[in-house]
Write a structure and sequence with these properties.
Chain lengths: ~350, ~375
């Protein structure tokens, strides 16, 4: 009898666990059910799109998620099949791409700067497959690799320009992911923008030390944000996947959040992706990840895709509830600045 | 008692005597069963899911190579923790020792030139072992001469190692004109090759495993190790030099973890990058506990972990199940093995205390 009870207990536990975990899995099931299957990707009429994430999940509310949504939307639009793999070990990039090339996928989207080298290697070994490298600047052109890059410095500049006008303490900061080109561009653009609108401002910049969790370390992000707040910063730019999100959420909990203390998100409009940050989230420095990925996948479908670099869009997102907090004249100045950046009349002056 | 009853109790007796083997195996089955329920509730046939893992990890030559590659550092990290446990030391610092060694062997592979191939590999491996051993010895010396508990010191040394390596790889040894913080590639002569789908490092790990087992079970040194581990007061009384034993124990433990890191660099990654060796040292603790501090048992335990990790991507590709289910399986297994629930359930009063792999806890 006693054993029976133990067994029953274990099964109930398992059911509870399962119930907790099944929430996130529903979406995955739907996605794979959307198209038929990938048993014959080699046939010309079947268009198969694969995506390999950097260390990170397709629901990271940031980088991987945007690219994932873009690729999925494009595949659905052209009637293709879409599937993804989430990398758990940086040593597996090649093997994960091979899952797709083995099945003759037409397009493989690889997400993130860290995969740049592995992507080029795989592309050279599979000349008939198109590779789209999100955030992967192509130094030398490989015919079947297209790097989707963004003028991050412009997005950072716009956000910094706003921060420079909004700060009361003349101290602002940024909490960043790994010190790699796209993140550096955001950070340097932010600083340049702030200095332009407010020459007296001082900017504290901190990068996550190199590690596999550089973009997934909310605890570190929160701690750094706290430090900068304690040092008197009143506007903080959180840029670095989960690490930056940790900073945003920490600032949202700080005293004065939304009245005297603000935060700025990154990559996507984080008003929607990190609702916990809404109390302080004045805007986000965005890049058109989803649109850019969709565009390129569709170009791969109609054959107009070319090797080299493809420059997507970048700017700042809507103010949402803070539209009433940010003074009208500030909004106008920022809008003029962003427009100037876009048409090229204003330069950020950022170099790496 | 009738003859059949005697036979029956003999059979049960066999299981009771070998419960250190029986319990982990039953634990794995229970874990796969519970994992199967989780997979089923996500709308996937568990058998299909498990087939996806194993067909990739075992029945595909690229997959098999990756399984062995992932298993190799796990065997050595597991051995490192095992050796520590046998002498009553809980070395949580395998990670720090492994990554310092990974960098050391990468530097030896890059900056020592003009050596013939085999010698260069040996020198680079040796550099890794030495650095790993010395890094662990810091904790050993602190314990022996200052009484600092090794759990505290090794875990702190992990963080210190990460900090120092970050600096080294971002500054003096950073690959020029490269945005990522990483070293250059090692010379061709320092590369540890694969023999078909078997990495040479894996064979090396098996040999080392055998040697450690013989050392612990068949030699005077091993006898001293076990005596110290079982009862340090009796060992002191018997005239064993405790200070020396603690330091040598940590040296050996760190050297084994270091070899794991060195093989990883020379056989797989060919350079050092901080993200490469994430979590290997901590997996070593899982493996040592699964293997119940038996050096030979680290091999199947490491193969299990390596298999699940190598097959994870295929699992997601074939079924859409997230690869983290693999960690759930391992967690359930470890929980059942280390907490005495399962042993008590199976063997009632005859259950061994499963936590007694070491006397080192808390002193």
């Amino acid at each position: 009898m006693k054993r029976m009870r133990t067994l029953a207990g274990i099964s109930i536990l398992a059911l509870v666990l399962a119930a907790c975990s099944s929430g996130s899995s529903d979406t995955a099931a739907e996605e794979t059910a959307a198209a038929l299957d990938d048993s014959n990707c080699a046939a010309a009429e079947n268009f198969c799109v694969g995506l390999v994430t950097d260390i990170g999940k397709v629901d990271d509310k940031s980088f991987n998620q945007s690219a994932h949504e873009g690729a999925m939307a494009a595949a659905a639009e052209v009637g293709g099949f879409y599937k993804y793999i989430e990398t758990t070990d940086t040593k597996d990039y090649a093997a994960n791409m091979a899952q797709f090339t083995d099945k003759s996928y037409d397009v493989i989207v690889t997400v993130g700067f860290l995969m740049a080298e592995a992507t080029v290697t795989a592309a050279k070994a599979n000349p008939n497959t198109k590779f789209i490298g999100v955030d992967q600047f192509q130094g030398e052109e490989v015919a079947n690799v297209t790097g989707l890059i963004f003028p991050e410095d412009q997005a950072g500049f716009g956000a910094g320009y706003l921060a420079g006008l909004m700060t009361k303490t003349n101290k602002i900061g940024s909490v960043l992911g790994l010190e790699i080109a796209p993140v550096q561009l955001f950070a340097k653009g932010f600083e340049a923008g702030a200095k332009k609108s407010n020459p007296n401002v001082s900017v504290t910049t901190v990068y996550h030390p190199p590690a596999d969790n550089a973009f997934a370390d909310p605890v570190w992000g929160a701690a750094e944000a706290k430090k900068q707040l304690a040092q008197g910063a009143d506007i903080i730019f959180g840029a670095g996947g989960g690490t930056g999100n940790g900073a945003l959420i920490e600032i949202a909990k700080a005293e004065g959040a939304g009245t005297s203390i603000f935060c700025i998100g990154v990559d996507t409009d984080q008003w929607f992706t990190v609702p916990e940050a809404q109390p302080c989230l004045i805007t986000s420095a965005v890049k058109g990840l989803t649109e850019g990925t969709t565009d390129l996948v569709k170009k791969a479908f109609d054959g107009s895709i070319a090797g080299g670099n493809f420059v997507g869009s970048a700017g700042i997102s809507d103010y949402h509830d803070f539209a009433s907090v940010v003074p009208m004249d500030v909004q106008d100045k920022v809008a003029a600045e962003v427009a100037g950046l876009k048409d090229g009349s204003i330069k950020t002056g950022v170099t790496l | 008692m009738t003859l059949t009853e005697t036979k029956m109790s003999n059979k049960i007796g066999f299981f009771v005597r070998n419960q250190s083997i029986v319990v982990p195996i039953v634990a794995i089955f229970v874990a796969f069963f519970l994992g199967g329920i989780l997979i089923f509730l996500q709308g996937v046939n568990p058998l299909v899911a498990y087939r996806a893992i194993f067909s990739e990890a075992w029945f595909d030559s690229d997959g098999l190579l990756r399984t062995f590659q992932k298993t190799t550092p796990l065997v050595l990290a597991g051995l490192a923790v095992t050796v520590g446990l046998r002498i009553g030391l809980f070395n949580i610092g395998a990670q720090g020792q492994l990554i310092s060694a990974a960098l050391a062997s990468a530097l030896a592979g890059i900056y020592i030139t003009n050596l013939p191939p085999i010698l260069h590999v040996l020198v680079a491996l040796f550099c890794g072992v030495i650095v790993g051993a010395l890094w662990a010895a810091i904790a050993g010396v602190l314990k022996a001469y200052r009484g600092v508990h090794e759990v505290i010191s090794t875990i702190m040394l992990n963080s210190i190692a990460i900090g120092i390596l970050d600096y080294l790889v971002s500054n003096p040894f950073k690959e020029p004109d490269q945005a990522l913080q990483r070293t250059k590639k090692i010379a061709e002569t320092a590369i540890l090759p694969n023999i078909g789908f078997i990495p040479f490092g894996f064979i090396l790990a098996l040999i080392i495993c055998l040697l450690v087992s013989v050392m612990l079970n068949r030699t005077t040194a091993g006898f001293r190790f076990n005596t110290v581990g079982k009862n340090k007061f009796a060992a002191t009384y018997a005239g064993i030099n405790m200070k020396l034993m603690i330091v040598t124990g940590m040296l050996l433990s760190g050297g084994l973890a270091g070899l794991g890191g060195a093989i990883e660099t020379l056989g797989i990654t060919y350079r050092f990058e901080p993200a490469f060796n994430a979590g290997l040292g901590f997996d070593g603790i899982t493996i040592a506990l699964l293997a119940r501090a038996n050096p030979l048992a680290t091999i199947p335990a490491a193969i299990l972990v390596g298999t699940l990790r190598a097959g994870g991507a295929s699992l997601q590709f074939e079924t859409g199940i997230e690869p983290e289910i693999v960690d759930v399986l391992l967690a359930i297994t470890l929980l059942l093995v280390s907490a005495p629930i399962l042993a008590k359930f199976l063997f009632k009063g005859k259950a061994q205390k499963s936590a007694n792999v070491t006397s080192g806890w808390g002193n």
